Amino acid sequence: MRLNLLSIGLLCTVAVGSATGGEKSSTSDQAQQKQSKSALVIDSSSFISSLRALGAGAQTAGEVEQPFFSITGKMVKIHGEDVQIFQYSDTATADAEAAPISRDGMGTGTSKIQWIGSPHFYKKESLLVLYVGDNQKVLKTLEALLGQQFAGK
Amino acid sequence: MSKFNTQRLLAIGILGLSAAAFPSLTFADHSWGGYHWARTGNPFTLNLGDNVSATWDSYLGITRSDWSNSAEHPTELNAAIVSGAGKRRCGPVSGRVEVCNASYGNNGWLGIASIWASGTHITQGTVKLNDSYFNTTKYNTTAWRNLVTCQEVGHTLGLDHQDETFGNINLGTCMDYTNDPTANQHPNTHDYKELGIIYTHLDPTTTLASSTSSLPSRANGKPAAHNTPAVVNEIDTSNPAEWGMLVSSTHGGWVETYERDLGANQKLITHVIWAK
Q1: Per-residue confidence at A140, pLDDT binned at 50, 70, 90?
Q2: Contact call for residues B115 and B127 (beta carbons, < 8 A)
Q3: Structural domain range at position A9
Q4: Start-to-end C-alpha separation, chain B
Q5: Which domains are present in chain B?
Q6: pLDDT at A93 exceeding the cut of 80
Q7: Terminus-to-terminus CA distance in chain A, angstroms?
Q8: Is this complex's ipTM strictly greater than 0.85?
Q9: A83 and A104 inside one domain
Q10: Nearest by CB: A64 against B32, B105, B151
Q11: Do A34 and A47 lie in a common domain?
Q12: Would the CA dihedral through A72, A135, A49, A30 be positive or negative?
C-alpha cells in the first residue's frame, strides 16, 4: 500500500515536471498544471509537503481551535501568513463539518463571525483549510493545491 | 425624435428626479433569517448575562444602552445586564444571552455570536469576545471593543450585517464590516428600523427569561431553563439514550440527527458526527 502511494506520488511529480518544462504554457497547460498540483494533496501531510516543494514555507506554528469545528487544527505559516488546517479521519466527516459554513464564510449554522479579515475556506478530501486574510500569494498557492474555495469572501 | 420617444424620455426624466429627491432613502432589510425572540407583549426585556471581565464591563454597558429603547432611538427592546451564568465555557442559558470574553486563540475571529432557535424563535444565545486579539495594540481600542460587542449582541437580536466589505465607506453602524471602526461603534437608524420590523408582531408564547435581576434557579447543578419543560434540566445530552428518535442518517451513518419531543412545543434536536 505504501509502495503504491509512493509510485503515485512519483508519477504526479513527473507530470508536474513535464508540464512546467515547456517555455511557453498554453491556458490548457496551466489548467493541467493546477490540476496536477491539486492532485498531489490528499491530506495534511501531502499538503505540507507540496507547500514546501513550492517554496511557500509551511512551518508549523502550534494548534488552533474553532468553536464550529469538532477537532483541533494546526496552524502553519504560508508565505509568512497564518493558515489553519483541520485533518479529519475521513471525507464524510469533513463534508459534514463544512456543510453548515455559509457560502460567504461569514457564519456557520446559527453563528455569525466577526473575522479580522476576509475568510477563505478550502476542502480537499478529508482536509479543511481556513485562511483569514487577503494575501494574493497565499490565495494563489491555496487554490493551486486545494482547488477553489468552497466558502469565503 | 418621435412623439413616443419624447414621452418615454420624459418618463425616465421624472423617475430620475424622484430618485434624486430622496438620496438617503433606505429600506430596513438585514434581518438574520427571520430569527427573533418570541414575546407575548411589547416592550420586552432581554437579559444579557454578564460573564465578562472588568475590562469589558463598560463596553457591555454601552452595548446594552445602544440596543435599548431611548428618546433618541425608540424601540420595543430593553436590554438588561444580569449576573452571568455561562461559566467558563460560555454555555447558553434558556431565554437569555450570555456574553463572555476569553483568550480563544489566534483563530482569525474577534467575536462570535451564536443563537439556538425553535423554528425562527430564538431560545438562547451566546456572545464570545476574543481577548487573543483585544489584548494586542491594534484591537485594544475603544472603537474596536464597542464595534464587536455591539455587533455580536446585535446578531443575537436577529440582525444580520448591513455590509460585509472591509474597505468600503463606513455606514455608521456596528453591523458594518470595516477596517476602521471609528464611525461604526453603535447601531444606526437602519438597525432600529429593522428591529421595529422584526418585533412589531407578537407571538402566542415567549422564549424570553422572565427574571431581570436574578440567576435562573438550578437543578442538579445545571442551569435551569425558563419557559421550557422541567425535563430539560434533567437531560444528560452526552448520553445517547436521552436523544430520542433517529430522524436522519447520512454519510454511511457517520452523521445522524435525533429528535426528542419534550412537550410544550419544545424539541431536543441532537446532531451527531461520530468519530471513526
Answers
A1: very high
A2: no
A3: 1-40
A4: 75
A5: 36-199 (3.40.390.10), 239-276 (no CATH)
A6: yes
A7: 40
A8: no
A9: yes
A10: B105
A11: no
A12: positive
Look at B35 and A110 and tell me if their CB atoms are within 8 Å: yes
pLDDT tens profile B160-207: 999 999 999 999 999 999 999 999 999 999 999 999 999 999 999 999
Query: Could you tell me which residue, B108 or A29, shows the higher pLDDT?
Result: B108
- The total number of structural domains in chain A stands at 2
Q: Kindly state whether residues A35 and A48 are assigned to the same domain.
A: no
Beta pairing partners, A131: A83, A120
Do A66 and B107 count as a contact with CB atoms less than 8 A apart?
A: yes
Q: Is A85 on the interface with B (CB under 8 A)?
A: no
The pTM score is: 0.72
State the Cα–Cα distance between residues A44 and A149, nearest whole angstrom: 16
Amino acid B87: pLDDT: 80
Query: Least CB-CB distance to B109: which of A90, A93, A114?
Result: A114
Q: What is the pLDDT of residues B11-23, one digit of tens each?
A: 433 333 333 333 3
Q: Which three cell numbers stand for residue A7?
A: 509510485
Q: Residues A58, A101: one domain?
A: yes
Q: Are A110 and A47 found together in one domain?
A: yes
Name the DSSP class of A101: B
Average pLDDT, chain A: 83
Residues A56 and A101 both lie in one domain? yes
